[in-house]
């Protein structure tokens, strides 16, 4: 009987010592999620060096390199043979020349030359052509706030009347728009231009951008799970934004979406430092969201088999300093039921976090929904500064970052870590294990 007692004590002692060692290993590896890490990443992604991260431009490639390096440092593995998944886009590229909007009379004498940034500015919607001239011998249409003109070569320009204080807003670039060039003009300028056209005068406009085909990349990685047959959890955020204006102003995109991209990097680093999850966790930093969700469309379509039955959580605008509810953005098709949305709402109820649901296709979740996946965007729905130079890091709220992490970690834990031994990271558990081992040692010595 005494031998059995001693054997039991030895087994328990060895077990407790093994669990203590495992706990210490896990704690040593742990890279905890910290709001400061998110803010540090935002600071770099919104820096002058990256010039607004416009897809197809140098700053965007620098952001891509930064994200890839972060994956490597965090020990996130390649999803395929490379961290980069390339695809082609048509992107606006700055060319030589100064923007102008001028009016010439029938004798080709300059009548009026408008001031860039005061009277007119590119809307940034498209630049299939960057120079256009037309007069009343060409087709033109005028509405109270819009003028459409067509050149003799059948190229078209749209002038959009807008308050001068909204000139700072820059639209997303959409290559397949019906017209070739879009220009924002000051109030009453539509009427003035119409008057000139009715006199037979010529309108001449040039914006120094042209559309070129570029190869750009999503950055992809994976944290391998124990069971490859379970559907993966996919975490995404886009890192591109709107670039640098012709007057030198930078569209830094702190909230939209350096915040979501930085949140994803900090979250991924944290997850990669944990014990192995039960299922694969796929991490994707998406590009060309501002060009019409092109990066997510490409990734979802090309990896449809790999992502079979996946759940997708997208982060877009995390950290508004406004006192607003947390937004869960589902697809426009309200017939599609999302189990993920139900769970996120339940988590918010449990944590007493105010949330709202929006049915919109205005972020990357839409690309995954259209391929049949359950996808939701987590979003702080503050649009007061986005797509303007005022979207800066000083307006990012650390408490809003913490709020999003609180919600998403609950979902990720239940989905991928509930049986992974995370209890060993709890300091109270470690103390209990040490005390239990000491007790076994005392009992062994007494025997």
From TrEMBL:
Gene3D superfamilies: Zn peptidases. Residues 218-409 form the Peptidase M28 domain. Keywords: Membrane, Transmembrane, Transmembrane helix. The chain crosses the membrane at residues 422-443. InterPro entries: M28_fam, Peptidase_M28. One of its GO terms (molecular function) is metalloexopeptidase activity. GO terms for biological process: proteolysis. It comes from the Bacteria. This is Zn-dependent exopeptidase M28. It comes from Clostridium perfringens.
